[in-house]
Amino acid sequence: MDPSTSSHALELQNLNSVSSGNQEDFTCMAPKLYKAAAEGDTNILEGMPSADLRVQLTPNKNTVLHIAAQFGQLKCVVWIIQHYSADSSPLQRPNLKGDTPLHLAGREGHLEVAKALIRAAKTVSERDIESGIGADNTMLRMTNNENDTALHEAVRYNHPKVVKLLIKEDPEFEYGANFSGGTPLYMAAERGSRDLVKIIIESTNRDRLAHTGPWVEQLCTQL
C-alpha cells in the first residue's frame, strides 16, 4: 500500500475515534473536513466555517494545509493559502512530528505544491519587510523533530525536481546534518543517486562544499 494511502486511512480512523468521545487538548478535525482536504474538494471547504479551517487539527496535529500538501491537492492548497491571506503561520506551522506543509510536499514529491507554498511565503515576506529573514527562507530552513528540512525529505525520497527547486530558492543556506548525521549531499551520495549528487554539487557554493569534508569527494567519485 502507498504510504500516503496508509497514512490517510489511519488518520481517518483516528479522527473517527476521537470524534466518538475521546477527549483531546485540541479541536479535533471533522472527518468531513479531512476528507475534503485530502481529496481536494474545495466545494466542501468553502461551506465550512472560517474558524474551523484555522483551528481544527488531526490527532497528528495536521492542519488542512498539511493534508492538502501531503496529498498533492494543488487547487486545494492554493484555495487555503488565499483564504489565510497574508498570514504566514499556516505555512510554518509544524505538526506533531515537526513537519510543515513544505516538509510533506517535499517528502511526497509534489513539485507544484512546493512552488505554491514558497510563492505564498514570498508574498508574506514582501508585505513584512521589517522582519529580518523572509517567511520563505524561514519555511525552507525549518527542521522537524529529526532535524530534517524539506530538502532532506526530498533527497531521502528521491525527488530531483523538488530538490532542485528547494536549493534554487535558498542557494546561500548551508544545510546541516539531521540527527542521523546526514546532510542532503551525504544522503544523496550514500544512496548512490547520481542525479541528486549532481544537482546539489552544481547548486552549492564551492567554499561551503569544501567544509563538508573529504568523504564527499570520495563518495561522489564512487558513483
TrEMBL record:
The keyword Transferase applies. Pfam families: Ank_2. GO terms for molecular function: kinase activity. SMART domains: ANK. ANK repeats lie at residues 97-129, 146-178, 180-202. InterPro entries: Ankyrin_rpt (IPR002110), Ankyrin_rpt-contain_sf (IPR036770). It comes from the Eukaryota. Keywords: ANK repeat, Kinase, Transferase. This is Serine/threonine-protein kinase TNNI3K. It comes from Vitis vinifera (Grape). The gene is TNNI3K.
